[in-house]
Amino acid sequence: MKNYPLPSLSDIHSARQLITGIALRTPLVRLSAAEAPAEIYLKLENLQPIGSFKIRGAANAMGHLSPETLSRGVLTASAGNMAQGVAWRARELGIPCTVVAPQTAPETKIKAIKRLGGRVIKVSFEEWWRAFETRGFPGVEATFIHAFDDLNVMAGNGTIALEIIEDLPEVDAVVIPWGGGGLACGMAAALRALNSKCKIYACEVATAAPLAAALAAGTPQTVNYQPSFVDGIGARIVFPQMLERAQQLIDDSLVADLAEVKSALRLMAERNRIIAEGAGACALACALAGKAGGGKVVCVVSGGNIDFATLCEILTETNG
Fold first, then answer.
1. How many other CB atoms are found less than 10 A from the CB of residue 128?
2. Among 121, 135, 176, 206, who pairs with 184 as Cys (CB 3.0-4.6 Å)?
3. Number of domains in the chain
4. Residue 295 dihedral angles phi and psi, to the nearest 5°
5. 202 - beta bridge partners?
6. Percentage of residues in the chain with pLDDT exceeding 90?
7. CB 58 within 8 A of CB 89
8. Could you give the CA distance from residue 9 to residue 132 in angstroms, rounded to a whole number?
9. Which residues pair with 205 in a beta bridge?
10. pLDDT by residue (tens digit) across 155-209?
11. Whole-angstrom distance, CA of residue 157 vs CA of residue 155
């Protein structure tokens, strides 16, 4: 093991100070479902200005750059939500923003990036993933803001855990969507320091669950990736450095199938009037299936940026 660094609790508290006034302190609400197998709470990151938690990490990472560096612009690789976080902050700072997005990215998110002033370069999935690995893109001279493998991004994400512990100190388990791992590892770093008894679970969708496979094997595994409406999480493989962090911090990765995610999305809309995207409903899908155990379980609703046509189709389905 290479002992990749993690954000400290001090880093996360500093991030909280830096992003105050940029990111919201989101509410933690009880799920209105007495039939659920646990006392489930929803951490509503879908209420952030960009509809996703990504504004926290983006704002913290960009807040650590000098004015001279920022003036040259920023670049990120994202299917939508991190891109919106970076573009939002870039617009506020008056600097250029370029986004490398996969061709499968939903048009709703692409339009949102452009609306925020970001320039979008659509590429193949392989080229998009290469941008994560190389932390850049040919022909674009700008500072790369990594969506997950960045200590300042993880520290910004970790501020969510501070709020959860303040609102529900006796929490028994927290379920966190796993995309690249920046949300889960950032939050887990804070949770381990603040509540050693709390179970910490990542969650994935069955059509793209590389973390579960990697944790089982002990090494990164390439899985069959199938694009779906759950576009905010999922990949073919886990970065080795993120797997090592997960092995230190996370108890397990829970996996929900598409039908379970659709059912959770509908339940949130029906009972709590909450709009979530597929990734944002994945944690609840796992909790409703009893995979996170009993007691007080917090599900991170990571985002709500779902195409309305897709949302309407899911809401009107009678079965998953």
1. 21
2. 176
3. 2
4. 80, -150
5. 176, 253
6. 89
7. yes
8. 26
9. 208, 256
10. 999 999 999 999 999 999 999 999 999 999 999 999 999 998 999 999 999 999 9
11. 5
